[in-house]
Amino acid sequence: MHLVMRDLDERLDLDRVRDLRGRSAHPWIRRALLTLIGAGVLVAATGAIGQPTGTWRAAGAAARLQVELPDTLRGGLLWRARIVVRATRAIGHPRIILGPGFAEGMQLNTIQPAPVSEAGRGPRIVLTYAGLKAGEELVVYLQLQANPTTVGAQDTSVELDDQADPIVRIAHTTTVLP
């Protein structure tokens, strides 16, 4: 059974369906929407929007501390922090103390290299590593995710101690947007 154009249902309006009569603006609407999407992608690719990472540095009597992490996050976003400790003299029991914002409202997925031990100091996380000699460097990577329900300022400060003696601290606040 072969159908030809004359056999089609007479309810079918060929001018509208085939010739797009009355819908001449539709291609322009599609083009405008695609242009908007493309502009958003282009702006994001240039780094104008998103969560750029900032770097903070501080020096103490026995070490220099450098922390790389974002100032602003969106809920649900995966992000990383990089902590660099450069010993200027021997540190027998280096401990990195993470502010409460690294745990409250966040999922701490990975810590590399793994610490010798992990503990809590109130709402803070304490990561203990093997001793450092003068001139040695310890680089710690944290992979985290902001919980989608977390909104507001989070204390993401980082402190370096030698056992219980503070060496250097970087105060930092990360803002989590909805």
Would you write up a description of this structure?
- With 178 residues, the protein is mainly beta.
- The chain folds into 2 domains: 39 residues; 125 residues, Immunoglobulin-like.
- The protein is 13% helix and 45% strand.
- It contains 2 helices and 13 strands; from the N terminus they run ααβββββββββββββ.
- The strands form 3 sheets. Strands 1-2-4-9-6 form a 5-stranded antiparallel beta sheet, with no helix packed on it. A 5-stranded antiparallel beta sheet has the order 7-8-5-11-12, with no helix packed on it. Strands 3-13-10 form a 3-stranded mixed beta sheet, with no helix packed on it.
- A hairpin with a 2-residue loop joins strand 7 and strand 8.
- It is rod-shaped.
Keywords, please?
five-stranded antiparallel beta sheet, 178 residues, single chain, 2 helices, mainly beta, 13% helix, Immunoglobulin-like
The number of helical segments is 2
Helix content: 10-25%
* CATH fold category name of the largest domain: Immunoglobulin-like
Q: Kindly state the number of beta strands.
A: 13
Termini distance?
59 Å
Q: By helix and strand content, what is the structural category?
A: mainly beta
Write the layout of secondary structure elements.
Elements: H1 14-17, H2 26-45, E1 53-59, E2 63-70, E3 72-74, E4 78-87, E5 94-98, E6 106-112, E7 117-121, E8 124-128, E9 137-146, E10 152-155, E11 158-162, E12 165-170, E13 173-177
